[in-house]
Amino acid sequence: MSANLAALIWEATLQTLYMVAVSGVIGTAIGLPLGVFLATSKRGELMSSPLANRVLGLVVNAMRSVPFIILVVAIIPFTRLIAGTSIGTTAAIVPLTLAAAPFIARIVETAIRDVDGGLIEAARAMGATPGQIIRKVLVPEALPGIVLGLTLAMVSLIGYSAMVGAVGGEGLGDLGVGGALGDLHPERRVAARAAADAGVGALFLF
Fold first, then answer.
1. Average pLDDT value for residue range 77-84
2. Is residue 58 a contact partner of residue 73, using CB atoms and an 8 Å limit?
3. Cα 118 to chain center, whole Å?
4. CA distances for 148 relative to 87, 114, 143, 154, 155, angstroms
5. Which of 82, 97, 124, 133 could bridge 23 with an S-S bond, Cβ 3.0-4.6 Å?
């Protein structure tokens, strides 16, 4: 392995770690409270709000059902609005976060719903408020499942980062595609990204 290739791999690895770490933290910050709300807001539950639960549930399911590569292209205008560009590691964080947040929300919801209902009733009997039950009973009891789910989410984000890297997001995916094509020039990758955007965008016309 040449020194130049080793340097490229090291740089791409750091870019991938940056994308995964930042999107993972932001996705968790969004997905954790969202998952807690989804797990406690059905009719008759601690934070009963059936309509909001139904609407948020539909949004989460819709986001999870969109193939990631389609999501990346579909939200290019939103990515440009947030990051100022649709190409590069910082821009890649936007679709990665939007993919991670609903996934994490469902993981948290499932982990909390697995908590024994008897613990909730016992806490209620002792006069605990809904907020106290969530903070001191539900989240601590569900923590092992949440941590396991977050680990799976981080692994998924690594795979997603390779896909977004292949369409201009940089990182290991970008390096892999560039190496496979024998082309490591940024100008060619930008042209390939534009061609990919046009091709996938055309799918929405039919």
1. 88
2. no
3. 33
4. 32, 14, 9, 10, 11
5. 97
| Number of residues in the chain | 206
How far apart, in whole angstroms, are the C-alpha atoms of residue 72 and residue 63?
12
| pLDDT classification of 43: cutoffs 50, 70, 90 | confident
Angstrom distance (rounded) from CA 42 to CA 133: 16
Burial code (b: 16+ CB inside 10 Å, e: under 16) for 103-127 equals bbbbbbbbbbbebeeeebeebeeee
Encoding tokens for residue 62? 């819709």
Q: Which two tokens stand for residue 23?
A: 């999107």
Output 131-139 pairs: Cβ under 8 A, ≥24 positions apart.
133/46, 134/36, 134/40, 134/46, 138/36, 138/39, 138/40, 138/112, 139/36, 139/112
Of residues 152 and 45, the one with the higher pLDDT is 152
pTM, rounded to two decimals? 0.78
Which segments of 130-185 does DSSP mark as H helices, in order? Answer: 130-133, 139-164, 172-180
> Which residues, in sequence order, are CB contacts of 49 under 8 Å at separation 6+?
41
Cα 78 to the chain's mean position, in Å? 16
- Measured between alpha carbons, how far is 138 from 119 in angstroms, rounded to an integer? 8
Q: Which amino acid is at 106?
A: R
